Amino acid sequence: MSERVLVVDDEPIVREVLGRYLEREGFEVGTAADGEEAIERFADAPPDLVVLDLMMPKLDGAGVLSWIRRRAPTPVIMLTARGEETDRVVGLEMGADDYVTKPFSPREVVARVRAVLRRSGSDPGNGTIELGDLEVDPWSRLAALRGRRLTLTPKEFDLLHHFASNPRVVFSRTELLEELWDFAFDGDPSTVTVHVRRLREKIEDDPSHPRHLVTVWGVGYRFDP
Which SS3 state, helix, strand or coil, does residue 88 take? Predict the structure, then answer.
């Protein structure tokens, strides 16, 4: 069965071109011209991934992303205006999994869609990882802290699983981009910074003074069980 992608953008040409390229690659595509229509289509037939423009009428992309995150861990790729770093950071902090800046190559978007879907349904490896009070189950893509299930986006789970699979190993932001985002040639390291901060908020007792997901100054991050 084909994976379904919902493309949300108020520009008809963007919806048409991305839809054509995605369908050519075997995806089933739905489209929406504004935030309200996006929510209606998502509720009627939840997609496997959403390509979401931030700037839209009626309800902007941030509002749609917030609505999705309250209901599902569906992967979301944002479309942002070139140079609008603040928009990208806000979107990532809200739980977006990746972003593409306009103008973009449709082939790049398709590649990002494939990469994010592959990561969100990646090889589960060797089974559940237990590190102290933390449990990470790649088969079900669920994680729990002290028996309480964590609500993680697909990318947050990938990041946690990667760290938990490699305890006490230091990873630079570039290495994490290459491993988990499949792009380093134009990837913004702040993408990693935002996701680490969000993950700390969910696994640390005091995110401002983390005990587990620690910063190695001048190098990157390390996970201490």
Answer: helix
Q: What is the DSSP letter of 178?
A: I
The strand order across the sheet containing 76-81 reads 28-32, 4-8, 49-53, 76-81, 98-102
Q: How many CA atoms lie within 13 A of 222 on its CB side?
A: 11
- Alpha-helical regions (H) of 2-127: 12-24, 35-44, 61-69, 85-94, 106-120
Tell me how far apart the alpha carbons of residues 76 and 65 are, in angstroms, rounded to a whole number: 8
pTM listed for this prediction: 0.66
Q: What is the pLDDT of residue 212?
A: 93
Cα maximum dimension of the chain: 51
**What number of other Cβ atoms are within 10 A of residue 125's Cβ?**
11
Considering only 51-60, 117-126, 158-167, which range has the smallest mean pLDDT? 117-126
Q: Are 191 and 184 in contact (CB under 8 A)?
A: no
Quick one: which of 106, 32, 100, 95 has its CA closest to 65? 95
Q: Give the HSE-up count for residue 23: Cα atoms under 13 Å, Cβ half-sphere.
A: 10
Helix axis angle, 106-120 relative to 12-24, nearest 10°? 60
Could you count the other beta carbons within 10 Å of the beta carbon of residue 57? 10
Which two tokens mark 89?
């950071």
Q: What letter represents residue 73's amino acid? A: P
How large is the average pLDDT for residues 192-219? 93
